[in-house]
Amino acid sequence: MKEILDMRKFSGQVRRDFLQLMVKALDETEASQQQSTKQSMRPTDNFPEDEEDGADVLSGVFSPAEISSPSDETHSSPINRALSIDEVLAQSIIFFVAGFETSATTLTFMTYLLAIHPEIQEKLRKEIDQAIGKDVPPTYDLISRIPYLDQCINETLRMYPPATRTERENSEEWTYGNLTLDKGTIIAIPIYAIQHDSEYWPEPDSFNPDRFSEENKHKIVPFTFLPFGQGPRNCAGMRFAIYEIKMVLVSVLQRYRLVATPRTVGHGYTHEGQVWNSKKFRTGRKTKNSKFNHRKLLKMHWYELPTTATYLRTFVPRFWNHLMQTVYCAKPSLRVCTQFWSLLQQTPHELVLALLFT
Ligand code: HEM
Fold first, then answer.
1. DSSP per position, 161-223
2. Is 95 near ligand 1, meaning CB less than 6 Å away?
3. Residue 163 Cβ contacting ligand 1 at under 6 Å
4. Annotated region Disordered: where (predicted)?
5. What are phi and psi of 68, to 5 degrees?
């Protein structure tokens, strides 16, 4: 990554992408370091004098709320600073990991769900046809006019959230009922479990995009649909991800009908007891007038199988529970999370609401 950054920097090549923001952020750091060696150093060294510039670099990537993160204890005023090389590397890695696997997983599951629910796929294809047509390349404006597409994506993200949980760290001691959480406790928010709780999502294992229809969406209990997290630290790439997913799906469905093949075994997954088997998860494509051709199976793996850990957590909840307990019990200060986990399973959403904004 450092080599790529150096190459970009020294070749003078300028592109409109994330890496360019990172190069700019590094430049800001160097400029601020040079400036601070010339001037007498403030206690908060490494921060550019011109706060506007620092904000500008970050504002292309993060919202103002994120730039002025209240959780940074070193500064009481809004933070406008450049990034160190380590931070640039960390951001780049997060963007690769958070950006590729998640969208790829959603596309994988969505193509699978559409293949095994042909009636839903037909309805979606029809709406795409009406909104865009077959030969017109999809654009941002065009793909925004297909409400049923949003419904199908949301329902896929409910059933198979690529991030099965998120975390928050307690910034101060906090009490809920007879449970007290120490400052610094890491709290897991079990997105997958909440989105499969039958109290909030009747028949949680059935694929029903109508849950998100105009008539029904008001019934969704706040904070029970969390595929992109919630609050000031929710997913930075949400809009981009949805756009990307829509572009791929529309392009595919304009040309192809997704079908389950003899190699698509059952649902290809199981909620308990079995580890994900990628070989079972195949869908095929069929052009409108052609007979299905087994030799031309289109493997709907946009990306190789996402991490085993994610799948173990998602598909083998017993293992996941066990893992939670072992991991948290191994760290005495986090032991409370084991109790917290069972509490969350009973009354998820009030707690989640409180915790996300702690
Ligand atoms: C379907 C696709 C995606 C899903 C389901 C997803 C999900 C999530 C979730 C659950 C979080 C944690 C939010 C929270 O704790 O409240 C998160 C954070 C984040 N995501 Fe995504 N994500 C997706 C795509 C992307 C893409 C495409 C990018 C970048 C291009 C991205 C960048 C990030 C970043 C940088 C964070 C950390 C935000 C912060 O800490 O302030 N994500 N994502």
1. -SS--EEEE-SS-EEETTEEEPTT-EEEE-HHHHHT-TTTSSSTTS--GGGGSTTTGGGSPTT
2. yes
3. yes
4. 29-55
5. -95, 60
Ligand 1 pocket check for 301: Cβ under 6 Å: no
Instruction: Tell me the C-alpha distance between 81 and 168, whole Å.
Output: 24
Token reading at 67? 């730039």
For residue 343 and ligand 1, the question of a CB distance below 6 A is answered with no
pLDDT at 308: 37
Say which residues have a Cβ less than 8 Å from residue 82's Cβ, sequence separation at least 6: 25, 26, 27, 28, 29, 31, 32, 46, 47, 48, 53, 54, 57
Return the residue whose CA atom lies nearest to atom 11 of ligand 1: 235
- Helix 85-96 vs helix 2-11: angle between axes, to the nearest 10 degrees? 110
ipTM of predicted complex:
0.99
pTM here?
0.66
pLDDT for position 225:
94
User: For residue 88, what pLDDT is reported?
Assistant: 74
pLDDT of residue 334: 29
Ligand 1 pocket test, pick from 67, 191, 233, 235 with the greatest ligand atom count within 8 Å of Cβ, gives 235
**pLDDT tens across 111-146, in order?**
888 888 999 999 999 999 999 998 888 998 999 999
Name residues whose C-beta falls within 8 Å of residue 271's C-beta, 6 or more positions apart in sequence: 205, 315, 317
| 20, pLDDT greater than 90 | no
How far does the centroid of ligand 1 lie from the alpha carbon of residue 163, in Å? Answer: 8
Ligand 1 center–CA 169 separation, angstroms: 17
Ligand-binding annotation for 329, yes or no, is: no
Pocket lining: 166 vs ligand 1, CB cutoff 6 Å: yes
pLDDT of 301 strictly over 50 = no
Higher pLDDT pick, 21 / 290: 21
| 241 phi, psi to nearest 5 deg | -60, -45
Q: How far apart are CA 304 and CA 313, in angstroms?
A: 18
